[in-house]
Amino acid sequence: MDASAFPRYATGMEKTAEKSRGGRGPVNIEEMAAAIRAGNRTALARGITLIESTRADHQEQAQALLAALLPETGKAVRIGLSGAPGVGKSTFTEAFGSYLTGQGLKIAVLAIDPSSARTGGSILGDKTRMEELARDPNAFIRPSPSGGTLGGVARRTREAMLLTEAAGFDVVLIETVGVGQSETAVADMVDMFVLLLSPGGGDELQGIKRGIMELADLVVVNKADGDLLPAAKRAAIEYKTALHLMRPKSQHWLPEVRLASALKGEGLADIWETIQRYEEIMKKTGTLEAQRADQALAWMWNELREGMMEKLRTHEGTKSRLKALEGEVAAGKTTPTAAARSLLALLLRD
Questions:
Q1: Rg (Cα) of the chain, in Å, rounded?
Q2: What are phi and psi of 6, to 5 degrees?
Q3: Which pLDDT band holds residue 207 (cuts at 50, 70, 90)?
Q4: pLDDT of 77 over the 90 cut
Q5: For the residues of 252-318, what is the DSSP string, one character each?
Q6: Rounded CA gap, 175 and 120, in Å?
Q7: Angstrom distance (rounded) from CA 288 to CA 273
Q8: How much is the pTM?
């Protein structure tokens, strides 16, 4: 990522060093954190850019920023939204977001776009797909490239969510690519997982992966208007029956099915009431607190796995051995397990 996209941030000794060289010095992390707490959109956007950077020095500064803001996080309703391409995710997100801001709430949308194979950047750009919501002073939309990440969720989406919470947003909506990959990634960072489906029913129900249905806390049948309304009602009944045959995620909540027309703005109040009721039940039973704790641990282990893989690729001892071992495994001269253990032994030894 181009470092010129945001100013360089530093704390402590680095800032002192800048001053000793006679420079004006970088913006202090504490100052940036204070600006985000105050709801400054520019500071929030720059903070997210900082945490998305892959540069080691930027990542160190990003972690300092997150540590400073951590006490202000955790107050928002976290909603994950997924669905196959063409189901109307962006239209629904804009309509639902506009409904929420109309209720006096501040909403942040973290929209994960497909990535360009050439540049790694976002392809679709949700600010152009949600023009009305993008102009709403109580809404913040941040498109981020998925980078090919499993589940269509950018690696730093979790941290971006924490920044938006610290900035005072009441609802954080994470809209995924929805390309049929495992959506466990988004389910592991939100309070409620909402699955958006078309009014196809029947044959479409057969094509839906059981796994993603089991992740859903709420199923919304979109495009329930006009000629599609009867089909949407039939589909809702079929989806409801299918959900009752599956094991619920929580003993305190059975997944529900709702009809909506994002185009006409219908069904949105009912959906929000369902989400609020879900949050209330989860909080009252202590399930939400336990769920967020489990998610934090899953996040830690994911970061550990990512860090280990990066270390294996860049560590001098393993980097020089990696190609040779790959060749031996491909040629059948050694087993994948033996090769992996050999690399780990090299890494741990150093």
A1: 23
A2: -155, 160
A3: low
A4: yes
A5: TB--EEEE-BTTTTBSHHHHHHHHHHHHHHHHHTTHHHHHHHHHHHHHHHHHHHHHHHHHHHH-HHH
A6: 18
A7: 17
A8: 0.82
Q: Do domains 73-285 and 293-349 have the same CATH topology?
A: no
> Which option is the CATH number for 3-70: 1.20.5.170, 1.20.1600.10, 3.20.10.10, 3.40.50.970?
1.20.5.170
Is residue 35 scored above 80 in pLDDT? Answer: yes
| Mean of pLDDT over the chain | 82
CA distances 164 to 49, 82, 112, 159, 160, Å, are 13, 20, 15, 9, 6
Give the CATH class of 293-349: mainly alpha
Map out the domains of the chain as residue ranges. 3-70, 73-285, 293-349
Question: In whole angstroms, what is the distance from residue 340 CA to residue 132 CA?
Answer: 51
Q: Would you say domain 73-285 falls under CATH 3.40.50.300?
A: yes
C-alpha distances (whole Å) from 11 to each of 26, 27, 67, 293 are 9, 9, 13, 29
Averaged over 140-167, what is the pLDDT? 76
Task: Identify the residue whose tokens are 């540590």.
Answer: 67
Question: 59: part of which helix (H) or strand (E)?
Answer: helix 56-69
Is residue 16 over pLDDT 60? no
pLDDT at 209: 62
Determine the Cα angle at 120 with ends 114 and 123, to 5°. 40
Tokens of 99: 């409904």
Q: How many CB atoms lie within 10 A of CB 29?
A: 25
The CA distance from 145 to 122, in Å, is 4
User: What is the reported pLDDT for 258?
Assistant: 97
Q: Which has the minimum average pLDDT: 21-25, 62-66, 85-89, 277-281?
A: 21-25
For residues 105-123, one letter each, b for 16 or more C-beta atoms within 10 angstroms of the residue's C-beta and e for the rest, the string is bbbbbbbbbbbeeeeeebe
CB atoms within 10 A of CB 40: 15
